[in-house]
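Allow me, if you will, to draw on your knowledge of protein folds for a short while. The matter concerns a single protein, recorded as an amino acid sequence and a row of backbone structure tokens. Could you please explain, in whatever detail you think fit, how the structure tokens follow from the sequence? I remain grateful for any guidance, and I place the record below:

…
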Amino acid sequence: MTIRVVVVDDQDMVRSGFAALLSAQSDIDVVGEAPNGRLGVEVSRSTHPDVVLMDVRMPEMDGLEAARRLLDPPPGVVHRPKVLMLTTFDIDDYVYEALHAGASGFLLKAAPVAELVQAVRVIAAGEALLAPSITRRLIEDVARRRPVPRPNTRLRLNGLTPRETEVLLLVARGLSNAEIAATLVVSEQTVKTHMSRLLAKLGARDRAQLVVMAYESGLVAPGTSG
């Protein structure tokens, strides 16, 4: 299956570079480009990509607002692409809000080519891009500045079984399904079943939102995910 991608970035060289690198892959087809969030939404609505590679800071409409519009479209718009945010370490708040809005993950702009390509494939496959070494550091930094748990999120976690809560805790710590299975001494398929139930019970789009919910609920306290 060919992965359809739209690249949205206000820097022409960056946008063109990403597009060229991705187009060189046999399983990826760049179907559109845009220099700002407003046009990014328009291009995405007309081309129906599987993944939108979205910069955070752009003129006219930033990537955060564009991601919101793509992931929570108006009535009559049924297509919802996966959104992969492009970011740097100095915009942690935007990263947090993007994940909360439903983005499937983020990638540092300075990431190696292989990492960019793999990220697109991971997102297209329906997984969240949550590299533990980066994700935990960014989300924890934001969580430290958002210390008050959200009551509605905490209430939703009350419906989880003890094992589901345990799995959610390990997800928030950045463990993969295989690592969770090894930690709990269960099969990876069992972990996948728990993951499906977590997503359904919490109304989360993907793994990224589960991590955010774990922090918002107070299940994971800043500094305890290492």
About this structure: The CA atoms of residues 140 and 182 lie 24 Å apart. DSSP finds eleven helices and five strands in the chain. Residues 188-202 form the longest helix (15 residues).
